[in-house]
Structures are given as structure tokens and as C-alpha cells.
Amino acid sequence: MDVLRQKSAPLSDETILWFEFLLKPNLLIKHLSKPIPTTELIAQFLSIAPENQNPNDLNSPETDSMNKNDGLKYSKKHLALKVLALKVAAYLRWDLDVLEKNLPAQRQVQLLSDLCSIAAGKTVHLPLSLVHESPIVGPEGSKHCLNFALALYHRWVLRAQVIRGSLGNRMNKPYGIGPGGVDANSMREEALINVPEPFINTSIEYLNRILLDPEPFRVLTFDSFVALDAHADSGQQRFESALPISKAELAVQIHYDLCMYYLYMQKYELAKQNIVNCKENLDQLKQEYCRKNLNAYIFCTVEEEQIRGCMMACGVSGEPDGLLERLNESVLNHYSDVVPILKEDNIRREIPMTQRKILELNVEGFVSMGSPEISTNDQRELELAVVALNVIRHVLDGDNILGSNAALQKYKSQELKLLELMLQYGDELYDELCLTDRDLLKKYFIQVITLLNNSTGVEAMLKSYPKLVSPQEFDDLKRQKVKDDIQFSGIGVQADWNVCESKMLRLDVGTFERQLITCTHASGVRKILVKLAGTNPTKPLWSINPSWSIPLPIKQLLMSLQRGFLQDFAYILVGKSRELAAKKDYSAAIALLTCLKSETTRSDLANNPLVLVLGKMAAWEGLLIQIQQVLEEWPKKPTDQAQFVRNCKQCLNSSTSNDIAPRPKILEHCAAILLNFNDWNSLLNPDKRYPALELSAAIAQAYLDIDKFKGTEKTSQEAWDLILPIFINQNTRQRHSTDNVTMLQLFLQKLRDPLVLSIVLSLLAKMYNIIKYESNLDLNAEYMFLWPVSIKNSAMYNHKMIQETLNNLLQQALKYYPNNIPWIKLKGDLEFSNGNHEAAMRYYVTALISGSEYCTISLQRPLMDEFIIRRMIKCCTSLGCYMQAAVLCQFLDETDYGLAFKSVIEKSSSFTDAMDSYYSCIWDPTLLEFIVNWHFKKGEHKRRLQAISYLGQLELNANNNEEIRREAAAVRKTRFLRSLARQYML
Which of 162, 199, 261, 813 is a plausible cystine mate for 158, CB 3.0–4.6 Å? Predict the structure, then answer.
């Protein structure tokens, strides 16, 4: 490290003395280019030239040639050192970040004071003299340079308030402690930057005023300061070499400093205004420097990342409003510019289609009510324009709305006007679309035109839009007319084919086969089968589509029938019904099976026992689809619930009769639906060949035990003995397979009734607790008393498979009943048991929010008991949110002060939650008093005052009656719960 001060020890050849920089002016530049701490050079220069010069030094021989005027009162030596320090600061581009980080506050003030004094040409004392009024420029000073110095100083005043808290922490360093226990230098730094509020306001006013000053703002550079010459009486600085900067560069820096100060003072609106202005000026500044082909800024030291961080803190995106925001504003302004927004969205596709459909309905209502501000014709134009733009968006999204033809049918009287608008808007965006979108648009308009009968009006309209439909394409469309449907004879009613081999062309056969595959009506299937009769006697018609899969019992039955119409018809209808059910088109699927059942009741087929069995199987398949529809649409009930339940009972009873039994899948669905409808008695005598029926009976018996014994201790063993063996480890019993677990989970997926779900959840939770055997991680659920309290050889069972089954069932239950408080708590317990404390906290908070009806009623037992509070405290401490844990300690019946105090102390080393923001949620005076004392001990004066202000609130007075204290606690509980909801649920 270079030594700048003379010492008595011999100096090495590399040592540079301070006056050598005066003798060789280029030596300073050369020295600064070395990898040395530049700010240390400033500190050494200023340490040789102290801040307050001793009056006795003014009469020393060294000051014989000191300034004789009323300007600067510095000796030549001190003036030379100060100029050198300022040259180094100018080399650093006056970067306050660097100066504040590496120089003590005393040296910072000294440097700024020297800058102001030299710029003014007379002595200026900081920190408080400048904030009253600007000093008068001396004979050797410069007004624009003094403006620069004052701007730098006032920026420093604001920034110093922001970093004042960090200086408070440095006062606790173990070295340099004075007799009073506090570092004297730290006390001086605290006094230097602890500027009173009126003076800070003056700094803000000065910075805002300098932004409005029409005179150009100039920045002092390295060459603006001239080192002293031995033959000159005083230093003549080259202030004219100061560089002018644009107003944008000045505004970026000042607005950023103001924003940081306002953020520190929690004045968020003012901070937001300044950071927005900062970003706007930064964009302008980048354009200016780009035009001038410049890279580094002269004065501004703000980085774009810092601005983005401030914008995030202020809630400003920095991006232009999205289309959805613009659409919402347009709705508030009576749909003023909704058409341009929708046009743009057809290209960008930001607005969800659901939102656009709602807009269409709102515009329709707006037009129907009428508005005196807009003419009726304009309103109709607006409605049709929105509809046309929405149709185009549907098409570009790949949705074929032509199937229902909703728009054209709804506006039948205005279909030409609507089509013209669609063509106009489609033509406007055609060039901006990709090839795929263009193809979708062309195909759509060609299909629309084929449905319209007014070919003359359409032809005249299309001349203006050749991109979408060319004249040649339109001529081709006119020649293609849809022929009337052909009427066929009643050959389809015959029991077998009685026609010879058809001479139909292969192309026609392929056309009818495609129609057969896509047809969804039984009558259409019948007609197409008639057309295809005998086209290929060696190939059955049901084999046309390999995707038609039917249940094995029905397939075996059909294969035993005589080759003919009924075999093809039945196979195709059953296959199509399963396809439609998979697509959740349940009504069409049931209609096909109903038609098949009617077909089997024909008089000419009555003597065939296989046909009668086919009719029963078709009825059972129809019942299966009805059950699937009920489960899918739950909690919506079937139209005729009583008849539906009777059909399920009859199907179950068929399994024990001598007749052919339904498929196991159908029986399983019937048992599940009877459980969901609480028809317990119908399940008590199951056919034990089917495990699902036996399990359903066991669950029904468990409910009857609950109802009979009214919650008393009664162990229900049947369901327990059926489910527990499923989870035996594979390496323990070779015959075990995960298929058993899969079959159990498939059955549980059919459960919908809350009571049934609660019983099964309690069973799985009890197994989980016993096998995992960690009492501090136990799950809590309803009806846990029903099940045994121990398991023999519990190590044989796989608790992970139990956990997976329980978790899947919980997710399914919460899907249908999202506000079931015990289930939400159970989900939280499961996450807590797995160590997922954030997820557990989210579910616990959700339970409290739902149970308190979204914080509208007070928290009561059993919603918030000791168990859930203790677990929430554990979650908070595990997540590092110690202050939340301290607040939760108040929710216990008896406040756990030991745990609360420990959490407050732990908070000092963690910053994952905001300590100050939870003071308003504390109603226990003892806890607040501890926090006040803790802040006093830590030297956090501002936080201590804040905690005292909450402690002094009247409703927390210990002399208040019980009702006032209870109300104060309820208000703070609600406030805290809402803060947790914002953190964990949003």
C-alpha cells in the first residue's frame, strides 16, 4: 500500500509522498490506474488536511503566502491536499455508493464541505449551514459548479438517512469502545447524518427545484481541479471545463435517490411517482447516448437492475398495460375503444376467450338497455362487431363453432352484415397471421358460405376480400349442392341379410364406412348398414373401426349369434356408446343403448334366449353410463333418483340369482352409488365373490355402528380387516401385488358422499398413525374411535402406500367439498407429518379462513384448538418466521411466554418475516413489553418507539374489563389471520 504521509522510518523507492503529486501532475493519473483502493487515497489526503484548521497554524511560516482575500481560509498545503482529494473523487465520477461504502461519514462530510467551499470560492461549513440558504459565490467561485456541489450534498443528505440504521449496527462493534460503552467515532457519525426533518425537506425542495432549472447542469471532472503551483498565490480552478449533461441524466439520478428515501420513509405513493419518472428518463437517456454513440454515463451511477427492483417494490410493472387491463378500462368507459382492442387481441391472443364471451354478453345487455350517449345504430354496429371479432378468435384458436352455428343462427336477420364484418376483420389481420391460421380462416369462411342461401349478396361481398375466398373457390362452392337424403326400404328390420352382393363402387363404400364411423344416432347407423349390406360378405361390418371395443361378455354373446344385422347393429351401438361415454357425452351414449334394448324386444326375436340376455346386458351397460354421469356431475342428482336407486339394487341382486350376472365393474359402480346415496341396508348382504361389494358392506356397517352407538367407543372390525392386508409389503407376502392397491384406489375414486369419505379417511389415517408410530406426527380425523388401536407386526405394512392412498382420497374429497374443515386440517396434518411445513401452514390457514367464514366471525373451538396452534408454531419456526410463531403463542389457552420470548430473540438473526408489521397483531402486554426491552437492548431505537406506541393503546390497558380485552384480542386475531392468508394462500 502506498504511504502518503512522511514518517521517521526510511522510505522505500516505491513510496510516493503527497507533494510529489503537485510536482508531477501526471503522477496522480498514473497512480490511480493501479489496483489500489482509490477511496483510501482520499482518506489519506483529508487526514493530512484536517477538517477544522487550527487558528495558530494560520500564522506559521507555511501560510505566509496564504490567500489574502476574503475567500478561502486555507493554507496552501491544506488547499493543495483538498484539491487532490477532489480530483480523486471526480475520477470516481462522484459515485456516492463508493464513497459511502468506503469512507467514514466524517470524511464524507469533509469532502463535500471542501467541494462546496472551492466551488463557491469561500469557506462553507457543513452539514447544517447549506440547508438554510444557498451561500453567495465568492470571487473565485462558479455558480454552476456550486449548483453541482449543492446537488451532490443534498443527495447525500437523503441517502444518509437511509443508511443511518446500518450505522446503528456498527456501534455494537467490539473494538474502539469508549468509556461509556459506545464508540466515539460512531457517535460522531450518527450526529453527522442525523439531520432534522425540516432540513431534509429543504434538501428535497432543492433537488426538485434543480430539476426545473432551465440552465444546463454541469458536472465537475478530473480536469476541472488544478493542483497548486508554487509560484501562484492561490489555486485557479478550471471550472469552465465542467461537462454539461442532459436533463434526462440528471433526472434519472435524482428521482432514484428520492424514490429510495421515500421507500425508507414508507411514503409509497411518492416513491412510485419518482421511480416511474426515473424509468421514463432512463429510456430517454439511453436513446440520447445511443444517438451519440456513447457508452458510459457522465454523472448517473444508477443501474437498470436497481430501477427494476424499486419498481417491483413500488408495485409498478414498467410495461404498458396488457390487453386485458385495457379491455377493463374500455368497459368502464362505455366500450369506447373495445373494437381496436379485440382486433389486436386476435393477433396477440392475451385475453381469455371466457372473458371475451362475457364481454359479448355484456355488450348485448348494454345495447338492449340503450344508452342516450350512443346512437342506436352505433350500438348495433358495436354488438355485431364484438360478435364478429369473437367468432374470428374462436376460429384462430382451433375451435369449430360452426357445429352449433350459434352466431349466424342468433343473428339470422343480420347474417349478411355479420358475415361482411367477419370478412372485413379477417382480411385486416390476414397478412399478420401464420400459414396455419390463414388456412383455418379460409376453411371457416368457405364452410360458412356453403350454408348461406343468398349467393348473389355473398358474391358481391366477396369481391372485396379475395384473400379469404377467391372467385374460383366461390364458383366451385356454387356447383356443390348438398343432395337430399336418400330414403331406403325397411330392410333393416329383418333378422338377417337377404340381399345379394352389391355392385357399389369402392369409393362409395368408403364414403359410407366413414359415415358409419362418425354417425352418433341409432337411426343413422341403421340406414348406413342397409346401404353397406352385402358389400363384403367375408368381412363383418363391426370390424370397420378397430377402435370399437366392447366388454368381453357382450362380445362373446354376439359372436354366438347368427351372422347378420343384429350382430353388426348391436356391436356398433355398444362400441359407439363407450366412445361417447369416454367423451362425457352421456345422453347420446345412453340413447344408443336404449335403442339396442328396444331392438331386442322385437316380436320376431322373442323366442331367442340369447337376444333376451343381450337386452339385459344392454340395460346394465346403460345403467353403468348413468352411474358414471352421476359421479361426474356430483353433487347434481339424477332426475328420477328413486327409480335410479331401484335399478342399482336390482343389478346387485342379479349377481346372486341363477341368471347371468352383470360384469364386476357394473356391480362395483352400483355398490359405490348406493353408498353415496346412503342406502346402507341394501349393501349388508354382499356377494363375497366380489371384494368391492364386501368392502361396501363393511363401510355401511361402520356407519350403522356410528348411528347405533352415538359416538361411544365401539370398534368396527370388518372394513379394517378388508383394507389392512392390501398394504402388506411385497417381500413379506409373495402373492401380494400393487394391483390390489390400484383396485382399492379405483373403488375409492367413486366415493362422493361426505360421510362415507370421512369414514374411509379416518380408517386410513388410523392405519397411518399406527404404522408410522410417531406420536408427535399423528394425523387427526373424524371417527378415529371406530378402528382398532394396534396392529400386529406393523413392520409388515407399507406406510408409503397407505400415505399415497390417503393423499389421493383427500385430494378427491377436497375437490368436491373444498370447505370441509376437518379434511383441510387432515391434509395439513399429512403435509406436517411429511415435513412439508409451508404446505401444512397453507392448509391450516385455509381451515381457519373457511371456518371463520373468511374472517367474518371470531375463531372458536374446535376450529382452533391447542393441537393446531402448536403445529402452526412449529411450522413457522421451521420456515424461519419466528415473529409469526411469537404471535401464535398468544392463541394458546395460556400464553407460552417461554416459547414466545425465544421466538422474538431468534428473530434477530432471521429476516424471513417482517418483525415490525406484526406489532399490531399482539394483544398481550407482557409480550409487547419484552419486545420493547429487547429493542432497547439491541439499540434499535426506532423499532422500540414503534413497539411502545402499540403498547400504549387504550384497549390493551391491564385495567380494562374482560369484554374490552376480549374484543381487542379478537380484532388482532382477525388481522393476523388475514396477514397469514395473504402470505400462504395467494
Answer: 261
